Amino acid sequence: MDNYNSRDAADSIIVGRNPVIEALKSDAQLDTIYINGSGGSLNLIKKLAKEKGVVVKEAQDKKLSQLANGASHQGVAAVGACAEYATVEDILQVSADKGTKPFIIICDEIEDPHNLGAIIRTAETSGADGIIIPKRRSASLNSTVFKTSAGAASYVPVARVSNLAACIDMLKENGVWIYGTDASGSDYSETDLTGAAALVIGSEGFGISKLIAKKCDFMIKLPMMGKITSLNASVAAGIFMYEALRQRRIADR
Predict the structure, then answer these.
(1) Which of 103, 85, 82 has its CA nearest to residue 94?
(2) Is 1 among the domain residues?
(3) How many Å apart are CA 218 and CA 186, to the nearest integer?
């Protein structure tokens, strides 16, 4: 269990109480643990998962049976992560090592793994330092994200935080300006994105949450010329990222 690589972890589902406990003890790259029930060894699993920072979700027996594919799950199944999660400090260190200003993507409750995977892929190609996602109400580094990212999840640091608002405060303390993306904002092409910047991409259906919107220093938007007034989250994120890249390349000339 010690030599997890990105592809092994992406395809790994561990079922049964003792196997999950051993996986937790061995520091295997686990993304999410699904549990049905409590007491005894299930409580131990919850305790170990909390200590390791692994998300635990209550699940119905039907969900566990699907994950176990017919094997005896004993009320628990763990899904491996396709890559090891980074810390926010790790992401800030990327730009420090390069001698560039931070360029970070914050995903505010992006729940579709295909969207998150596509955002990670574009973040890698546009030179972003890393991505930050919340632990709850968000897609995570599972096999779908890995495949949709075309392997970029192995190269782009992804930090998963318990409190996104507090994380933004920490970024501000490190000199990073926060740019929300919303229809109420200023034209994206007329906004200076050359400094230390974090782009906040809102959820597919509801956009940026009110709390996170209040934390943003600026709001920027894309022009909408047709009858449809919104874009897929990953498509919009790609446009914003490449505008930031365009501006930064011009500024570096």
Answers:
(1) 103
(2) no
(3) 8
Q: Please check whether residues 70 and 121 belong to one and the same domain.
A: no
| pLDDT grade for 71, boundaries at 50, 70 and 90 | confident
Q: How many domains does the chain have?
A: 2
Query: What letter represents residue 148's amino acid?
Result: T
pTM here?
Answer: 0.84
**pLDDT per residue as tens digits for the range 120-140:** 999 999 999 999 999 888 998
- Of 35, 63, 80, which marks where a domain is finished? 80
Percentage of the chain exceeding pLDDT 70: 96
AA letter at 229: T
Burial-class residue 158 by CB neighbours within 10 Å (0-12, 13-18, 19+). Answer: buried
Residue 131 DSSP SS3: strand
- Residue 212 counted as domain residue: yes
Domain of residue 214 covers 88-251
Helix axes 40-52, 17-25, angle to 10 degrees: 30
